Amino acid sequence: MATAGGATIAAYFAEISDPRVERTRLHELVDILVIAICAVICGADSWVEREAYGCAKEKWLRQFLALPHGIPSHDTFGRVLARLKPEKLQQCFLGWMQAVSEVTQGEVVAIDGKMLRRSFDRATGKGAIHMVSAWASANRLVLGQQKVEEKSNEITAIPALLRLLEIKGCIVTIDAMGCQKAIARTIVEQEADYVLTLKANHGLLYEEVQRFFAWAQQRQFAEVPHEYYPTLDGKHGRVEERRYWLVSELSGFKEIQDWVGLQSFGMVERQRTVAGKTTVEVHHYLTSLAGSGQQFGEAVRTHWSVENGLHWVLDGAFQEDQSRLR
User: Fold this and answer.
1) Which residues, 6 or more positions from 133, have their beta carbon under 8 angstroms from its beta carbon?
2) Which of 5, 105, 120, 122 has the CB geometry, 3.0–4.6 Å to 128, for a possible disulfide?
3) CA dist 44 to 36, 275, 324, Å?
4) Rounded to whole angstroms, how far apart are CA atoms 285 and 283?
């Protein structure tokens, strides 16, 4: 099973230390990992299904795995994988992802969090697991994930995740929770751009930006240097019009100090008509992009592919919210 770079999947996970006592090892650790990964890709949800997958594909698996004692049992899968260090497994996974995908210049990397609804444990007082993922929009791949520690939030998990990734030349998009000066600095230090949703969590800056765009709209942006990009979509009785404005002249704003790399303020006005009823939503953004309203607009629109491309698949195909694994 060679990757695009010519190395096998097994090669990327070979450096993981085996937690078992040597005399008890009937199966190679790499064999267990590769079968488990392939089984999950094919939709296996339980240890029993991983074993069943291995038995069904044993002839094919023997082309690149040793399998000295055949396919491991479901108990072996569960016992061994539960004892591995998640951090080391993640590092190997990231190396594999980087080998099979190439993050392109200007690609949108959407950072978003998701709660695993049924991963809580009332008996021990453990809350549900909260994961933050980095989604490569063009490649449609998860580049990495970071667990949010209990009694913490995404603000601390996002920088840790970003430091694991190679995002040079990309556009990182994050919702309002990640609109933080430290996160903007981390992105710029890794030679990437950012588009951050600005909401009332930054009171003074949000009010300043909101008042400015309201004033500019009243003047129809007359004598206000800006970039404008409109889009119109319609299907199944729904008409959706989006209007994007990007303003890169920031000299008159007071609350922009310490925002590393900040080049522009953006605004999106979304007008949606369904069954004759029209609703309007307005959102504001901080971004290190400058000069291209279309690039800004496409980055904002692409960010939401993480919902359909990742979160929906995790719940719809992999039933992640139903999993009781912790």
Assistant:
1) 111, 112, 113, 114, 142, 144, 145, 306, 310
2) 120
3) 9, 41, 15
4) 7
- pLDDT for 7 equals 55
Where b means 16+ CB within 10 Å and e means fewer, 144-164 reads bbbbbeeeeebeebbbebbeb
CA angle 157, 182, 294 (to 5 degrees): 95
Per-residue pLDDT reduced to its tens digit, 290-313: 878 999 999 999 998 888 888 888
The whole-model pTM stands at: 0.77
Task: Please state, as a whole number, how many other Cβ atoms lie within 10 Å of the Cβ of residue 54.
Answer: 26
The per-residue pLDDT for 3 is: 47
- One-letter amino acid at 102 equals E
State how far the alpha carbon of 47 is from the alpha carbons of 73, 77, 82, 192, 294, in Å. Answer: 8, 6, 11, 40, 47
Calculate the CA dihedral of residues 26, 28, 31, 33 and round it to 10 degrees: 100
- Annotate 60-106 with DSSP letters as a single string: HHTTT---TTSSPPHHHHHHHHHTS-HHHHHHHHHHHHHHH--PPTT
Q: Is the pLDDT of residue 4 over 60?
A: no
Which of the following CATH numbers is that of domain 99-192+309-316: 1.20.5, 3.30.420, 3.40.50, 1.10.490? 3.30.420
Q: pLDDT digit string (tens) for 264-294?
A: 999 999 999 988 899 999 999 999 998 789 9
Please report, for the chain, the start and end positions of each structural domain, with discontinuous segments joined by +. 9-94, 99-192+309-316, 197-293
Q: How far apart are CA 267 and CA 259, in angstroms?
A: 18
Query: Quick one: which H or E segment has residue 109?
Result: strand 108-115
